[in-house]
Structures are given as structure tokens and as C-alpha cells.
Design goal:
single chain, 921 residues, alpha+beta, Tetracycline Repressor, domain 2, 12 strands, 65% helix, elongated, EXOC6/Sec15, exocytosis
Length: 921
């Protein structure tokens, strides 16, 4: 045992005693074998003794034994290495630092004896053994002479009744058994002497004891004789009784046989009754009690039935009855499988109908909430809050019978074939699911998608009920496997069908039913996220189809619009076309008939946009994203910009519009620009987004700025139409006599036509356009007239003109300026506080005429005067026009006698101007 647990103990070196003559000795012991180590060290006498205890060191693979070795009256001055080695069953520890002189202090040789106690963890073993320590020297040790240590140890071991095996093994391992034998003989001799002395000491007591023993022997002999006599008498009396006892035993045997026969009959009768009850239960299709009886017979009666024939019959019939029950239950279960598949569609439709009702209630609640928020926002009335609590037990509504399934499961469990039944159930339901997942090509998917998803919903609702109510019939992993298989198939079917669907409404109908299907099954714990992801992946296609339909609708609306102001005759028409889109200028209901500032295409287009928002919300809601407001806003912007705005621009650029139609389109675009905020607000309401988020800066639609730009495009188109019409009237300037001999008193004929057209233009614009647009149209028309007058002077077709022609143009400008001033005041444009008026648009032509009529035209070259009176004129234009200003020769010659100094001065000034302009250029 020592060789197994303690092969080597090592006492390390560097032992330095302290001032109290105490030295600490480390001891390395295997941690997994030794649990406790205690040893006592000291010389032969017990004056000096120390105890070393074992203590494991933390963080070390080997523990340490730390203790104190005390020497009284001696000092250890040298450091020595102590090494403990095993010799057989004993341990020898040489002590190199103990001299004979120090050992003499104890009256003995320098030899130490160590008593070591080891307690091992294995099986609670405990060992105690003796170790001799000796100091090697030139003298003989006590062990070599055969006395000393071994004698003391031997005597102590004998005195304590300990095992001498370790000492014997040690003596033989050292090769010196003679010393041990010598000591043992000495011990024997000592013991014999002690025994002899003991006997001598108690000699009289021994003699008395022998006498008493002899007296006891005589009494024992008398007792034996008395017992023998009594035994003979007892046998004589009992002979008659023994005969009667034999008769009694025979009767007992008969009674036993009769009792056993009765017990056998009772058992057989009881077993027969159980068999009869079992047959009745089987006949009445009560298989579970029949199986319980069969199990009772098998466990408690079959082996204990005494009649072998009956036991054999019963043993043969039990398997037959179980097989019969199994077939019956199996047949009933197959019928149930067919029935449950037939009602799965109905169960699914009912469950999806419940989900649709719940969604409808939620939408109504949201509508009431939006209405309350709108009333609160408008300050009409205080919102009324109502708490509605409704709980529907789906299991009580979705009724379907699972009793045959549970009965079959229970019967198969009793038959010990539960796993076989569970596997059969799972495989058959998997086959039914694969059949349900087949898409019929006989009908369009739009017609067959509802029965398809209702059948699958009913299937998994039943499986969820089975999983929750049965014990061990289905596992969650099996249901998840079925669901994953169905999900993969449904995803592929939806993706394929969506790729072939080209109508937005069809996509929306399928999507609505799929989301109801997903909501229904998510209530039963199924993961429907992959299905919703398919819907999200198709939202771009849906909106492209929806935008295409809206593009066609808006195109038809614009094509059929005559762009005349809409006349509303009834209040319900006003509410439907104006109030519903917040197009009214005030909350007061106007008098009817009411002439709207827009054409019929505006409310029609608003209805298309509102329908688009509702359809888009219908598709985006109840999908994979909770907050889809940003997505809706993106598609709304796309509708307003890419569809509605593009259609209006196409009408502007490609349509042959007259002035009123161009004005009406510009006015319509202005109205549509204002509706952007309304549509965004409606979208936020439908998405349940707080209105303060919509009203933040930069939170509006991009389409609003686009409509602003399109409005400018419409006004530019209007100006192009106006300019074209003005060019027709301005072309009449070619009929002016540019070298007239007489000074004209009235304006030219063309200017009358222009004023009449401008009056019609501004009057029409005042009825249709806002003041800003009216100002822009008026400014553009007058600018064009002024530019055209200047361009006429610059045209190559005009070679020369005289002062009388300039006076005629001056009359034209005066008439035009008077009209511009009057219209600028009468239309209310003066209240806009613009930086210029209509008259300012004619400044270039007016400054040119003033320069040509000036008595000092060379003042044009004076920077101060030019900046003040001729700032709108260009040097080159003035130079070209002045070159064409020439009086006719016959007039010049005919008026030589009448020329005055003023005319000469003007002519000289003009000549100076021409010369200086020529030098400047």
C-alpha cells in the first residue's frame, strides 16, 4: 500500500533554525493520494517531540507539509539536505546534521524515531508506520548492533497491539534480520520471565481455583442423572399423543388440498369474469377499459392461474384481442384523418374571418382616434374617449373534434406502440399537407388563393391544437418541420404568381388575404416573417402597377378637361369637390352656383391621389414593417411628380393651348401645389403618424417644389402664347409711314389692337390667376411690347425714319402707358408693393423715344444724365437707331428759309451724338 500511495517523500534542503531552535521542514506529497499526514519526531526519550502536519499549498500542483521540528537544548547551525526514501514497508530518513555529541545530550546515539500517520482518500484507508532516522558516521549505529531503535519501536508496537509487519519488512529489506530475531528472542524471554513471576506471585490463588472447579464437576454429574430420568417419563406419556398427531396431520393435509382447490376455482372464476368483461368492452367499442383488463390479466392473473389449459387459452387470446383492437382503432383513425382534412378549409376560413373582424375593429378604432384628433386640432369639440374590452376565446370558436385522435393515441400507447402511431400520424399529415400545397391550374390564382390559404391555415391551427393538448403525439420540431416545408412552398407560389400578375388590384386582394392568413397563424405561434418578406419584395411592382393605372386615369382626366372654370350648383357637389380636399378659401359656404378657381380636372386628380394613398396604405399595412410612412411618402412623391406633374407638363408643352387654357393649367397647378400638404397629412393619418412630425420643417413632399417649377413652366407657356398673339399685332407696325411729312396727332392703329388684347388678357387673368401670376403675365406682355418696338427700330427692313414717325411712336407709348397705369391700379397690383409697375416695363422704348425727341440728344454721352434718363438704353442699339434718323431732303430744302436756331441746335447735337457713338464703338 505504501508503494502505491507514497513512492517517494522529499524533504528539501535549506533548513535554518530560528532563535527558538525551530526549523520549518517542507514535505512534498502527491495531492491526489494523501489526505492527511501527521508525524512525530524525537529521540528515544520523550523529552523532545515535535508534530508535523500536512497542509496543501494553494495554486500548486503538489501540496506542502509544513511543521516545526523542535530540539530542546541543542542548536542546528548547518544547513543540510534531508531525503526520505522508501525501503520495503519502512522509510529511512538520514539526518546529516545531528552529531554524536548532540545526541549524547539525550543519553543515546544520534538516532531519531519518526512515527508517521497517513490517511488516504481511497476507501478511507489509514496507515500508521514507524520510521527510523539515523545519522551516518564512522561509529556503528544502533541498528547495526541490533539494539536501540528497533528495541524501543518493537516494544512500543507490542505494547500498543500494532502490526509488526512494517518492522519485519524493514529488517529484511536492510538485510539484517538477525538483529530483529535477537530482539524478538529478548522480548520472548522477557515475557516468559514476566509470566513466571506472575505465577509465583499468585500460586495460592491458583490452588483455590482448582478446588472450586472440582466441586463444580460433582454437581454437574448429579444434574445429568436427573435429566435422563425425566426424559424417559416424558417419552412414555407422549407415545399415545404421537398417534393422534399423525391423524391430525392427515386431516390438515386434506383440508389444505380442499382449500387450494377452492382458491384455484376462485382464481379461475375471477379470470373468467375479467375475460367476459373484456369481451363486452370490445363488443361495445370501449377499447381502453378492455386493454386495462387485458393488462390486469397479464400482470396479476396470467402467471398465477393454476389451470394450465385456461392459462394457455388466455395467453393465446390476449394478442389476438390486442390485434383486433389495433385494427379497429386504426380504421377509426383513418376515417378521422379524412374528416379532419375535409373540414380544415372551413376551420381556416373561420379563423381568418376572426382575424379580419379583429382588423376591422382595429381600423374603426383608429378612424375614431383620427376623427377625435382632427376635432381636437380644429377645436370643434372635446374628444370623447371610450375603453373597449373584448376577448374572444379562439379555441371555443374553432370547434373541431380531436377525440378520435386522442383515443387512438391513448390506445396505441396502451398497446406499447406509441412511437409507431406517432410516426404514422406525422407521415400521413405530411402527405395531406403536400396535397394541400398543390396549386390547381384549372382556376386563376386570384380565385383559388383564398381556399388555398384557408386550407393551410386550418391544417396548422389543428396541428397547434394537437401539439398543445396531446402528450407526446407531436413534438415542436416536427411541427416546425411541417411549417418550414409549407412556408417554402407558399413563398415559391406567391413569388411565381406575383411575377405573372399585372393588375394592382389583384395584387392587393391577394396581399390582404395573405396578411390575414399570416396574422391568424402568428396568433398560434407560427413564424410568418418570410411570408411577409415576399409581400414587401413585391411592393415596388405593386406600386408600379398602381402608378401605371393612375397615369392612365390622370391622362384621361386631363384629356377630357376643357379647362374652363368649374361651376358648382349644389352644396353636396361643393363638399365633394372643394371641401373634401380643403380647396375652399374660407369656411363660409358660398352662394350657388359657385364658380371655382380651377377646372374639373383638379378634384378628379385629387380623388385619384387619395385613392392611391389608400391603396398604398392597404398594401403597406399589416406587412413586415411597422412604420411605413416614409415608404408611402416616397411613392406619393413619385405619383405627384412622375405621373401628375409629368402629365401636366406634357399638356403644357405639347397641347395647342389658348390663353385661357394656359391660364387655367397654371391655376390648377397652383391649387395642386396647395393640396400636397393635405395629401401628406392624410397619409400621416392613415399611417398613425403624429401630426407634429408632419408639420416639421423640410418634412413636406418634394412634389410641392416641383409643382412650383411646373407652375412657372405653365406661366412661361402662357407668356409664349401671349407673345405670339402680340407679335401678330406688332407686325402691323410695318404699315407705319416712317418718313411722314406731317406730324401725327393720334396713336397708330396697331396700338389700339394691342390695348384691346391686353385688356382681354388682364381681365381674364384677373379672374383665373392669383395676383402674383397676374403681375407676371402683365409684366411679361408689356416687356415683350417694349422689346418689339425697340427691335423694330433695329430691324434691317427699317432703313430710315424721321421725327414725325418718332412722334407717332411717342403717341403709341403714351396710350400704352396710360393703360398700364390704369390696370396696375384697378387690379390691385399696386397693393403688392412691388419694386416696379406695369409702366416700368416700357422703360426702354420710352427712353429711346425721349432720346430721339430730345433737343440735346448728345446729353446721352454725359454719364450722369445717361444714368438718370437713359439707363435702360444700350450704346450699340442707340448708335444703330440714330444712324437711321434722317429728315427727307425735299423737306430740308423746302424749309431753308424757315429753319430757326433751335432746329439747328438739335441737329448739331444729334450729329455730335452720332459722331461720338461712332467713336465709342
Amino acid at each position: 500500500m505504501l508503494s502505491k500511495h507514497l513512492d517517494y517523500l522529499h524533504l528539501d534542503e535549506s533548513l535554518e533554525p530560528d532563535k527558538d531552535d525551530q526549523a520549518t521542514i517542507p514535505l512534498a506529497v502527491p495531492n491526489d493520494t494523501v489526505e492527511e499526514l501527521g508525524w512525530y519526531v524525537g529521540p528515544f526519550d520523550e523529552q523532545c517531540i515535535a508534530k508535523l502536519t500536512f497542509a496543501p499549498s494553494s495554486g500548486s500542483s503538489q501540496p506542502n507539509a509544513v511543521g516545526v521540528h523542535t530540539w530542546k537544548g541543542t542548536n542546528l547551525r548547518k544547513q543540510r539536505r534531508l531525503k526520505l526514501t522508501r525501503r520495503g514497508a519502512c522509510l529511512v530518513i538520514p539526518v546529516l546534521g545531528v552529531s554524536a555529541e548532540k545526541g549524547a545530550a539525550f543519553g543515546r546515539e544520534p538516532c531519531l524515531v519518526i512515527l508517521v500517520s497517513l490517511h488516504f482518500r481511497e476507501k478511507g484507508a489509514a496507515f500508521r508506520f514507524v520510521v527510523m532516522m539515523h545519522a551516518p558516521s564512522n561509529k556503528r549505529t544502533a541498528a547495526e548492533n541490533g539494539d536501540g531503535g528497533i528495541d524501543v519501536v518493537l516494544m512500543r508496537s507490542l505494547g500498543n497491539g500494532e502490526d509488526l509487519g512494517p518492522i519485519v519488512r524493514y529488517a529484511f529489506e536492510c538485510g539484517k534480520p538477525e538483529a530483529l530475531l535477537h530482539q524478538l528472542r529478548n522480548v520472548v524471554k522477557k515475557k516468559e520471565v514476566e509470566i513466571e513471576e506472575m505465577c509465583k506471585l499468585h500460586y495460592d490463588e491458583f490452588i483455590l481455583a482448582v478446588d472450586e472447579l472440582r466441586g463444580v464437576l460433582v454437581d454437574a454429574y448429579d444434574l445429568k442423572s436427573s435429566l435422563s430420568s425425566e426424559n424417559l417419563q416424558l417419552q412414555e406419556v407422549a407415545s399415545a399423543l404421537l398417534l393422534r398427531l399423525d391423524d391430525l396431520l392427515e386431516l390438515y393435509l386434506i383440508q389444505k388440498n380442499v382449500t387450494e382447490a377452492i382458491q384455484t376455482l376462485k382464481v379461475c372464476v375471477q379470470v373468467s369474469k375479467l375475460c367476459l368483461a373484456c369481451n363486452m368492452h370490445v363488443a361495445n367499442i370501449r377499447f381502453y377499459p378492455a386493454l386495462k383488463i387485458l393488462d390486469l390479466i397479464e400482470k396479476d392473473y396470467l402467471q398465477s392461474t393454476p389451470l394450465k389449459a385456461l392459462r394457455k387459452v388466455i395467453d393465446k387470446q390476449i394478442p389476438a384481442i390486442k390485434l383486433h383492437i389495433e385494427k379497429k382503432v386504426f380504421s377509426e383513425f383513418n376515417d378521422w384523418l379524412l374528416h379532419i382534412r375535409s373540414i380544415a378549409k372551413e376551420v381556416g376560413q373561420l379563423a381568418i374571418g376572426q382575424a379580419a373582424s379583429a382588423r376591422q375593429r382595429e381600423e374603426e378604432k383608429r378612424a375614431h382616434q383620427r376623427e377625435a384628433e382632427e376635432q381636437s386640432r380644429s377645436g370643434v369639440s372635446d374628444p370623447v374617449y371610450a375603453l373597449e374590452s373584448e376577448h374572444i376565446d379562439e379555441d371555443s370558436v374553432l370547434e373541431f373534434d380531436l377525440a378520435p385522435l386522442f383515443r387512438s393515441h391513448h390506445i396505441h400507447t396502451c398497446l406499447g406502440i406509441q412511437e409507431k402511431f406517432c410516426e404514422f400520424y406525422y407521415n400521413n399529415r405530411l402527405l395531406q399537407l403536400n396535397l394541400d400545397l398543390q396549386i390547381s391550374s384549372a382556376h386563376p390564382f386570384l380565385e383559388s388563393h383564398q381556399p388555398f390559404f384557408a386550407q393551410i391555415a386550418g391544417f396548422f391551427i389543428m396541428e397547434d391544437r394537437v401539439l398543445r393538448t396531446s402528450r407526446g403525439l407531436l413534438s415542436e420540431s416536427q411541427v416546425e418541420s411541417l411549417w418550414d416545408s409549407a412556408m417554402s412552398k407558399m413563398k415559391s407560389v406567391l413569388e411565381d404568381q406575383f411575377s405573372h400578375t399585372n393588375t394592382a388590384n389583384h395584387l392587393l386582394l391577394i396581399k390582404d388575404f395573405v396578411t390575414l392568413f399570416a396574422a391568424t397563424l402568428s396568433r398560434h405561434g407560427y413564424q410568418v416573417t418570410p411570408l411577409l418578406e415576399v409581400l414587401d419584395n413585391s411592393r415596388d411592382k405593386y406600386h408600379e402597377l398602381l402608378l401605371s393605372e393612375c397615369r392612365k386615369q390622370i391622362g384621361d382626366i386631363l384629356t377630357s378637361d376643357t379647362f374652363e372654370q368649374m361651376v358648382i350648383k349644389k352644396e353636396y357637389e361643393y363638399n365633394m369637390n372643394v371641401v373634401s380636399f380643403h380647396l375652399q378659401s374660407s369656411d363660409t359656404v358660398p352662394a350657388f352656383p359657385f364658380i371655382a378657381p380651377f377646372s374639373s380636372s383638379v378634384p378628379d386628380a385629387c380623388r385619384v391621389v387619395r385613392s392611391f394613398i389608400e391603396d398604398s396604405v392597404s398594401y403597406l399595412s399589416y406587412g413586415g414593417h411597422i412604420n411605413f410612412y416614409d415608404v408611402l411618402k416616397k411613392y406619393l412623391d413619385k405619383l405627384m411628380i412622375d405621373v401628375l406633374n409629368e402629365a401636366l407638363l406634357s399638356m403644357i408643352h405639347t397641347g395647342n393651348l389658348d390663353v385661357s387654357q394656359a391660364m387655367r393649367i397654371g391655376a390648377n397647378i397652383a391649387v395642386l401645389e396647395r393640396t400636397c400638404d393635405l395629401f401628406l397629412w392624410q397619409a400621416a393619418q392613415l399611417c398613425s403618424v403624429p401630426l407634429h412630425l408632419v408639420e416639421r420643417p423640410h418634412a413636406g413632399l418634394t412634389a410641392k417644389a416641383v409643382f412650383k417649377a411646373s407652375q412657372n413652366a405653365a406661366y412661361n407657356a402662357l407668356l409664349n402664347v401671349v407673345d405670339s398673339k402680340l407679335d401678330e399685332y406688332l407686325a402691323l407696325m410695318n404699315s407705319i409711314n416712317w418718313t411722314a411729312d406731317e406730324t401725327p396727332e393720334h396713336a397708330n392703329d396697331y396700338i389700339h389692337e394691342i390695348v384691346i388684347y391686353l385688356d382681354y388678357l388682364i381681365s381674364t387673368a384677373q379672374q383665373i390667376l392669383p395676383l402674383d401670376a397676374l403681375f407676371k403675365v402683365g409684366v411679361g406682355a408689356l416687356h415683350h411690347i417694349s422689346d418689339s418696338i425697340v427691335a423694330t427700330f433695329l430691324s434691317e427692313s427699317l432703313k430710315r425714319f424721321n421725327l414725325n414717325a418718332i412722334i407717332g411712336i411717342d403717341n403709341d407709348l403714351k396710350m400704352l402707358e396710360a393703360f398700364a397705369d390704369e390696370r396696375f391700379q384697378s387690379t390691385g397690383l399696386s397693393d403688392l408693393k412691388r419694386d416696379r409697375s406695369f409702366r416700368d416695363c416700357l422703360v426702354e422704348s420710352r427712353q429711346l423715344v425721349n432720346l430721339l425727341l430730345s433737343n440735346q440728344p448728345d446729353d446721352f454721352m454725359d454719364p450722369v444724365i445717361r444714368e438718370k434718363d437713359y439707363g435702360a438704353l444700350d450704346y450699340k442699339k442707340v448708335a444703330t437707331i440714330c444712324e437711321k434718323l434722317k429728315d427727307s431732303p425735299d423737306r430740308l430744302f423746302g424749309s431753308l428759309s424757315n429753319r430757326n436756331a433751335k432746329q439747328n441746335s438739335r441737329k448739331k447735337s444729334m450729329d455730335t451724338l452720332k459722331r461720338r457713338l461712332k467713336d465709342f464703338s
